[in-house]
Amino acid sequence: MAEKKIRFGVVGVGGMGSGHCSMIPKIPETELAAICDTEPSTLARMAEQTGVPAYHSHIELLESGLVDAVVIATPHYFHPVIAEDAFARKVHVLSEKPLAVTVSQADRMAAAAGKSGCAFGVMYQMRSEAQNQAARSIVESGVLGEIYRTSLVMGWYRSQAYYNSGGWRATWAGEGGGVLINQAPHYLDLFTWLGGLPASLTGETRTRLHDIEVEDEAFGLLEYKNGAHGYLYASTTEAPGYNRIDICGDKGKLTLQDGKLSLFRMDGSIREFTHNSTEMWASPNGEWLPVDLPAQGEIRGHSAITSNFARHILHGEPLIAPGTDGLPAVELINALILAGHTKKRVTLPVNRAEYDALIDELAASSKTKSMVVEQRVTDPNFAR
Ligand SMILES: NC(=O)c1ccc[n+]([C@@H]2O[C@H](COP(=O)([O-])OP(=O)(O)OC[C@H]3O[C@@H](n4cnc5c(N)ncnc54)[C@H](O)[C@@H]3O)[C@@H](O)[C@H]2O)c1
């Protein structure tokens, strides 16, 4: 007997959503059952391409009886609204990143998921990569000792043409932020998955290179509960792109750079060596160790997360990227934008009411973009 497949609806079939429409039929546990987009010509084109029922409203799709689950690939502000409507109708939700623009919206999504008993996932596909899985196991094993420093440097270049490709992009009203809310979430997710959330931070955001109203650069100085410090930089202004995470502990150091994982293990504790060594010019010893990577399955990237999500519903397989794990990245994004705009130290969890008031004020100041040349094409580096 053929194995049951999860019937997926894709809501928002632009750049990323059209990618989901091509991936879902290729995954053994999933089938594409329906699509939805509010933009008529995009919907008509994708209806012809996919041959599945097409809806202008996500409510009609959710109430069609055709879908067990939805992938939400609309601009970010709509993720929570559509997720809550899906959960209310007992439809499982796999949300694109970021979960939401504000932590208060993300809280509501998580609460609605919990109440519904439905599966809730977030599309952080980088978690499925072997080196990132291995990095997480290393941190969880405690081999690094007490963490005293973290850093994230993320340069993910974007042209002005990219920003001109959609009216919602890089506006406070349409997107709710710049590099922090659009490009950085993947690395903010990995960074907080490995290093946790800081207790407080100071930061700056600015628009240096692009003709946009939101930030194309962000910097943060982070302080953790145990007194550890961190540094964070994210921009769409730097080329060549450079992505690096460091997690430094008393007994070892882990570095992830551009998909490569390195692990240095000290022979002992730096703290103990510092106080016990009697030699004036000595340094603690250790070595770079080869890291065993888990086998990388054939299904990778977005498809790995979608397949895992379906297997979670069908067989109870643990989620690689549970929806509630999407909250820390939103928390960090909101904290940095708040710090950048108020010029004050921000403590986490972010004050929900304060951030809602800021984002409302920024959205109210948003200007309609004049140079839009609509293109709904996803980054070819990510179309997997
Ligand atoms: N995981 C990844 O690697 C990745 C990559 C790219 C984009 N994304 C995410 O996917 C989402 C979409 O980004 P994109 O680049 O595809 O944007 P896009 O503008 O190309 O597509 C968005 C589509 O959603 C439609 N839409 C807008 N409001 C809607 C609504 N209420 N109901 C139904 N459809 C609606 C638009 O008409 C458009 O076709 C964003 O949240 C983005 O962060 C994730």
Can you give a write-up of this model?
It is a single chain. With 384 residues, this protein is of the alpha/beta class. It folds into 2 domains: 6-126 and 304-320, Rossmann fold, CATH 3.40.50; 128-292 and 328-364, Dihydrodipicolinate Reductase, domain 2 (2-Layer Sandwich). It has 12 helices and 15 strands. The strands form 2 sheets. It has a 9-stranded mixed beta sheet. It has a 6-stranded parallel beta sheet with strand order 3-2-1-4-5-6, sandwiched between helices. Strand 2 (30-36), helix 2 (40-50) and strand 3 form a beta-alpha-beta unit. Helix 6 (130-141) runs parallel beside helix 8. The longest helix has 16 residues, at 327-342. The model has no long low-confidence stretch (mean pLDDT 95). Bound molecules: nicotinamide-adenine-dinucleotide. Nicotinamide-adenine-dinucleotide binds at residues 11-17, 36-39, 42, 58, 73-76, 78, 96-97, 123, 125, 166, 182, 376, 378, 382.
How many helices? The count is 12
Radius of gyration: 22 Å
Decide which structural class fits the backbone. alpha/beta
Q: Write down the CATH class of the largest domain.
A: Alpha Beta
Question: Overall pLDDT, averaged?
Answer: 95
Give the ligands present: nicotinamide-adenine-dinucleotide
The CATH homologous superfamily of the largest domain is called Dihydrodipicolinate Reductase, domain 2
What is the 3D form?
A: globular
Query: For the terminal residues, how far apart are their CA atoms?
Result: 29 Å
**SSE run:** EHEHEHEHEHEHEHHEEEEEEHEHHEH
Q: What name does CATH use for the topology of the largest domain?
A: Dihydrodipicolinate Reductase, domain 2
Q: What are the segments in which pLDDT stays under 50 over at least 5 consecutive residues?
A: none
Question: What amount of the residues lies in strands?
Answer: 15-25%
Give the total of beta strands: 15
Helix content: 25-40%
Query: What would you say the CATH architecture of the largest domain is?
Result: 2-Layer Sandwich
Sheet with the most strands: spatial strand order: 14-13-12-11-7-10-9-8-15
* Largest pleated sheet: 9 strands, mixed
- How many discrete structural domains? 2
